[in-house]
């Protein structure tokens, strides 16, 4: 099962990229890949979505364009969006 502690730990290296832009570092992309691997079932994806949304809302200077480009910049397809406004009940 996915916990918010895991989500926060995996995304922590991404905060500079998510708030300032540029390029995500290797630790960030590694965390995103781990998070993606952990969120395989619909329940886990919903939990991860809620954790990501809560984490994103702790950073008022989060850049939405950086958040949306993160998976492609890391070369993965993320099964949970990084968004402050997503309705996580729509994730399946």
TrEMBL record:
InterPro entries: Bifun_inhib/LTP/seed_sf (IPR036312), Bifunc_inhib/LTP/seed_store (IPR016140), Plant_nsLTP (IPR000528). One of its GO terms (biological process) is lipid transport. CDD domains: nsLTP1. The keyword Transport applies. Keywords: Lipid-binding, Transport. It comes from the Eukaryota. GO terms for molecular function: lipid binding. PROSITE patterns: PLANT_LTP. Residues 4-88 form the Bifunctional inhibitor/plant lipid transfer protein/seed storage helical domain. It holds the Pfam family Tryp_alpha_amyl. Disulfide bonds join 4-51, 14-28, 29-74, 49-88. Belongs to the plant LTP family. Plant non-specific lipid-transfer proteins transfer phospholipids as well as galactolipids across membranes. May play a role in wax or cutin deposition in the cell walls of expanding epidermal cells and certain secretory tissues. This is Non-specific lipid-transfer protein.
């Amino acid at each position: 099962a996915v916990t918010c502690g895991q989500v926060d730990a995996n995304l922590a290296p991404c905060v500079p990229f998510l708030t300032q832009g540029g390029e995500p570092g290797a630790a960030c992309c590694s965390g995103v890949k781990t998070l993606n691997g952990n969120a395989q079932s619909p329940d886990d994806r919903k939990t991860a979505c809620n954790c990501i949304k809560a984490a994103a809302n702790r950073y008022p200077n989060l850049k939405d364009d950086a958040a949306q480009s993160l998976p492609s910049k890391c070369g993965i397809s993320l099964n949970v969006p990084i968004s402050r406004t997503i309705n996580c009940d729509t994730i399946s």
